[in-house]
Amino acid sequence: MFNKILIANRGEIAIRIIRACRELGIQTVAVYSEADEDSMHVHLADEAVFLGDAAPKESYLNADKLIRAALDSKADAIHPGYGFLSENASFAAAVESAHLTFIGPSADSIRAMGDKAESKIAMKKAGVPTVPGLEGLESDDDFKKAAKEIGYPVLVKAAAGGGGKGMRVVSEEKELTEAIESARSEALNSFGDERLLIEKYLANAHHIEFQVFGDKHGNLVHLFERECSVQRRHQKIIEETPSPLLTPEIREQMGQAAVAAAKAVNYYNAGTVEFIFDPILSSFFFLEMNTRLQVEHPITELVAGIDLVQWQIRIAAGEKFPFAQNHFHQHGHAIECRVYAEDPANGFLPSTGRLLQFIEPRGPGIRVDSGFTVGSQVTHFYDPLLAKLIVHAENREVALQRMKTALQEFVVHGVVTNIDFMQAVLRHEDFANSRVSTRWVESALESGILLLENPQQAVGFHHLIAAALADVVFVSGKAQSAVSNETDPFNPWRKTDNYRV
Amino acid sequence: MFNKILIANRGEIAIRIIRACRELGIQTVAVYSEADEDSMHVHLADEAVFLGDAAPKESYLNADKLIRAALDSKADAIHPGYGFLSENASFAAAVESAHLTFIGPSADSIRAMGDKAESKIAMKKAGVPTVPGLEGLESDDDFKKAAKEIGYPVLVKAAAGGGGKGMRVVSEEKELTEAIESARSEALNSFGDERLLIEKYLANAHHIEFQVFGDKHGNLVHLFERECSVQRRHQKIIEETPSPLLTPEIREQMGQAAVAAAKAVNYYNAGTVEFIFDPILSSFFFLEMNTRLQVEHPITELVAGIDLVQWQIRIAAGEKFPFAQNHFHQHGHAIECRVYAEDPANGFLPSTGRLLQFIEPRGPGIRVDSGFTVGSQVTHFYDPLLAKLIVHAENREVALQRMKTALQEFVVHGVVTNIDFMQAVLRHEDFANSRVSTRWVESALESGILLLENPQQAVGFHHLIAAALADVVFVSGKAQSAVSNETDPFNPWRKTDNYRV
Amino acid sequence: MKTTFDTQTIEINPSGDNYAVTLDGKTVSVQVLRADAKRGRMDLLIDGQRVSAHVSSDLAKRWVTVDGRTSMLTKTSGAKQGVRHDYAGGLIAPMPGQVRSVSVGVGDVVKKGQTLLTMEAMKMEIRIQALKDGVVKAMYVSQGQTVEREQILIEMEA
Amino acid sequence: MKTTFDTQTIEINPSGDNYAVTLDGKTVSVQVLRADAKRGRMDLLIDGQRVSAHVSSDLAKRWVTVDGRTSMLTKTSGAKQGVRHDYAGGLIAPMPGQVRSVSVGVGDVVKKGQTLLTMEAMKMEIRIQALKDGVVKAMYVSQGQTVEREQILIEMEA
Known about the structure:
Order of helices and strands of chain C: EEEEEEEEEEEEEEEE
Number of strands of chain A: 23
Shape of chain A: globular
CATH superfamily of the largest domain in chain A: ATP-grasp fold, B domain
CATH architecture of the largest domain in chain C: 2-Layer Sandwich
Oligomer: heterotetramer
CATH topology of the largest domain in chain A: D-amino Acid Aminotransferase, Chain A, domain 1
CATH architecture of the largest domain in chain A: 2-Layer Sandwich
CATH topology of the largest domain in chain C: Glycoprotein, Type 4 Pilin
Radius of gyration of chain A: 24 Å
Radius of gyration of chain C: 22 Å
Strand content of chain C: over 45%
Largest interface: A-C, 59 and 53 residues
Number of domains of chain A: 5
Distance between the termini of chain C: 45 Å
Strand content of chain A: 25-35%
CATH class of the largest domain in chain A: Alpha Beta
Strand order of the largest sheet of chain A: 14-13-10-11-12-15-22-20
Shape of chain C: elongated
């Protein structure tokens, strides 16, 4: 087993990995940029190494600095988390060539799945169903011909892409040229690779993915599905497992396809095979494989009853994965809501600022993975994910009720969040009835079937009264009784502090 | 379903019940004594009713006031929690006769199990194995004769008792008279009933209990065992499930005995059948039945995958329990540590004071049920339970590691706690090897095999440095960088506050 | 005492142990059950209804959460304020971030929908496009510059 | 600067950006990596080893947690203090609570092991028993009275 692991990431996922290391008795090295000097992940690790400027390419995306930090701190492995360099095959290779262990799949597996065009070809070979489409096209005319063949609407997307970047939906031919141009430029900017592929756009599709997990000795299983169809800007905000749409038979088929997909690239460690699922035809198509830990891995941990991050580390250290497929069963139901610093009323664009209040809900069946606290600064440099709110309960109904209650209790002041928005989504009958496809948020907002305000509550009035009274009550002596009941952990020093305010 | 429930309790269990109600969409009424005016359970409930003086008999043990409060606030049910009036048959009857629902078993079931002597007779009839002993004795001579027959050591205990009160271990005849006298007086003081029974004292026994759960329609299942052998002063401090000592066969037998015991008294709602288990002979004996929710219910919730408090409420409202015995399986392993305000170095006697610091551990698989926060006052009026720290993991080894890490992260200042002590217990190889019987703590401390300090760490030195430096650093300007990074949710009002400090 | 948030004015007057709160010509009685300035929490009895609120303050802004719904209110002088989204002829930053590229200069003639500059924040790229045909009158930002939300980026002449 | 906790004296002197800390004749260099007075937390580098500490203060008491172990230290003048547990001839309260019953009065002759009074706290009953044969010299408490931990209850004469 490793003695020390460097975590090449930040925020909640760095903290998640630190916890796993601690429980395994492994020392941790955090890394941080200038913007993260006072972040929680820095304080929680056993050591911390400063990388440089806030800009990701000077810090969390700088492979050389990360490997240097690992060597200097005598770490013997690097966990990349998700995002940043986690799916960068060259980084994985560089880590290994520095005689460090990369906690993830092999560079070859990452490379094979990183290219959307090549991976699609490999999947077809392995007998995994793929979305009708074409790869390797170059001229606009080729694209036009292919689009006509496939039938509009089509999707053009970056061969090297991911996370909705370099992806355009095209509903008719006259939009095609501009879509190709903008997707290409975004692809080039984001991935340094302008190749695109084209495929049928499935309008009413659900996004259902399968967690796979394998060791370096050829054992590989799937850990069931995650339904991730609640998306905005092609990015997930709410995930759940089990998917209410899958019958045991389809689940079995998709699980087998996921295992076949992973085996086709000699996969080991944690990975996710994403499918597009058509609920009317009950048919599914390979979308892509994420060759890393997923943001939404906690719901799988709860329902499959296994600590994925601990096992990532153990597998990377060479341990055998002792469980066969039939060891796993789905226990209860889990839902994750991603609390983002973003403004739904402003096109879900990010919101930045200092957190004036940050109260996480607590209680049985509630898990919060977060990297923020009161006073934290939410900057524009990184992903605006504030927290992952995860609930687990005996069935979907109870889990949904638990999530609604927990979201109501989550208080964030200082940045605009999507908490109220997610409450509105969960309240909607389409969510209760599992009719939420990946395009649902967009169309529900357009058509007005999604109301952001709960009309039953006279909230505006109470908000105004509370805001106005706070100025009176908190400033006047009226709050004294409460204040005098408070104890400061440092009362003798408090006075001194005050002089400096 | 109920519209509103009054919770006749305080602290963490009141909060636990409030959460369950919220998720079920039920309004809650808290009650509080003078000492609890500013307690968390009061703030979290929808309404709160003041009962009276801090003394339990003026507040939480005052049946009349509680029923009056329920009627006045238009609640339609009362949840008693554990302790206080939860096992008081007259209270249950009085609640029902006020046309309110008592969330628990019938008054008859409580009464039948409340008397240790009578319940033992009933269990013998029902074919449930009981500890060799005698009931209904009065004179010292009768006790002496019985003790000789049974063989020393023997246990004399209150027929109406529970929680280790009115209970004495007697190892030889000359101690018997005094033990009877003191047990009688304690029994009379605590339960208003001086009757005692005598039974064989099993020195190396483990305490293993089974959760049972039934509805008002005759369905009754068990939800597996809890191993609760880590005790001090006859009270549990660490519990786990599954018990590493039970084979599937013994578990099955004990489960059936637990169901038989409950059915013998027409039991419904949540209850616990306690057994004494002899690990050498693999034999078990009925000890008593707790006719209420148990402190340690969360470990069962995690491993059986069911919300016991929500189901208590649903059953009380008349719902059918839809699950048969074969629906339930044990998933993973759960451990609970009870964090008490007590001083292990002072005979585990309670410690009171104001909480200067209270940092609960967090992370995947960690649940904390608590009713305290920084600034809370721990008084001498009530049970010194500060928090229940509960972990869940895929197996015992991972759960144990998780608990050790979590205990290390739990910071409580202002009162002495048993946190360090429980770490020492969990570090001991006897715990790892499940060799902890109910007498283990006592004898381990006596014999010195339990070391309260971890000798590997030079902790004393670091503690002294930190304490001395705090005076320098927190008072001087050295802490400014950190302080200036802090944001107060009320910075504009903060200044005003300061003038009043 | 009168306070105005955005465009709504609310009046608060002590009335015995309670407060008389007037809004939109309607007056209700509000009792403060509990106020915890340190945690920014108040329990109120508004017209007989128990209401728990979290309130934070940041200069003129007030963040308020009641029943799980959060609002951001801005304390104003009471006069109607020009909303900066409507800034005539100007293009404002829809989010805080960094200017990645600038494609036009002062005096350039641009067409509706033409990309004038791109911004980046939190892994996202945003294109600032001309809302209508026109001429660039002023450029307030340059490549690499960090901008706040609602900062004016470019001024246009129709 | 010298500080004494219980019977141990520790000396702290600034030394460049660090502190020189002397205890038991041994001096180590301590660097303060981070100090958060509000949360009572310090990250220290003690002799090259990273140590995180939580420290709280309550009058002369300091509560310190390092590596999951909590100590309560008492700041003293430096002179050895009489430990109150050893209070000669006195019986002290082992826990805070309420006096439930008093069975003896001043002048009573009592036997070793005899119960002199009972206390109650947090659902528990504690008997205060005579440590040896003797005579009750003074009674400092009466029934129903609330007492602090280590408060002297009864004084005895051998």
